[in-house]
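Input (structure):
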């Protein structure tokens, strides 16, 4: 019943109230596997509320050996995301080094991008969408990620990666609203140009936390996990590359 109440609070974007409710349950009511499960719910709320250090704190405080592998994986995903948001990119990559799946791939992309390993992030984005059906339309998040890969290749001065990206995805991008942007970034370009800076700023403004929450919902909401629909607004300053 308490978990359902927390779920309703999250749907209303009342993240601090939901967190307070679940924290009380962890501190006073729950034991065993149930406690580790509710801790995962609390951790994802903290992540959505942009409090990665609190997410790590609650996960560390509720470690328990022998929990179901699906729950252990879920908690590792949350811990890795919290590490990335807390500026510990390499620790996050080490934590998920033996894991696979789309949610893991997105984490690796985010970690490498935040560490300014732009060419590696671009290659990972390419690999993530390489197995899509040829000729099928791409959704907007995918199109923006491909533009992000292109920006990464430009920043890394990786002309080979840039031409490969254009050859691989240009046909699927050409009829999309983002084609002019993709066409511009994958063509001859100077990183000091005003136009490129505008595109780079738009890429930087794409909130990777929202993408993480969407991936998390897809992976775990069917198992009953609490999964916020939205993250709180980031700080006023524009996200930097």
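Output (sequence):
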């Amino acid at each position: 019943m308490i978990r359902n109440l927390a779920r309703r609070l999250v749907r209303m974007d009342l993240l601090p109230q939901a967190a307070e409710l679940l924290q009380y349950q962890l501190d006073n009511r729950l034991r065993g596997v149930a406690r580790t499960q509710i801790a995962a719910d609390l951790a994802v709320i903290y992540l959505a509320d942009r409090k990665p250090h609190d997410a790590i704190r609650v996960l560390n405080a509720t470690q328990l050996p022998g929990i179901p592998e699906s729950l252990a994986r879920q908690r590792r995903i949350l811990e890795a995301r919290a590490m990335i948001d807390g500026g510990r990119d390499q620790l996050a990559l080490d934590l998920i080094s033996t894991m696979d799946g789309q949610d893991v791939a997105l984490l690796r992309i985010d970690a490498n991008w935040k560490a300014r390993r732009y060419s590696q992030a671009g290659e990972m984005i390419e690999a993530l969408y390489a197995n899509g059906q040829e000729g099928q339309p791409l959704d907007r998040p995918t199109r923006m990620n491909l533009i992000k890969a292109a920006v990464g290749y430009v920043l890394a001065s990786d002309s080979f990666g840039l031409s490969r990206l254009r050859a691989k995805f240009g046909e699927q991008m050409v009829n999309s609203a983002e084609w002019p942007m993709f066409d511009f970034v994958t063509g001859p370009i100077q990183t000091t140009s005003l136009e490129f800076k505008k595109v780079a700023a738009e890429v930087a403004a794409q909130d990777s936390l929202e993408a993480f929450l969407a991936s998390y919902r897809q992976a775990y909401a069917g198992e009953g996990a609490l999964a916020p629909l939205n993250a709180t607004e980031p700080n006023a300053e524009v996200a930097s590359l």
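Notes: Confidence is low (pLDDT under 50) at residues 236-240. The chain has two domains: 1-98, 100-212.
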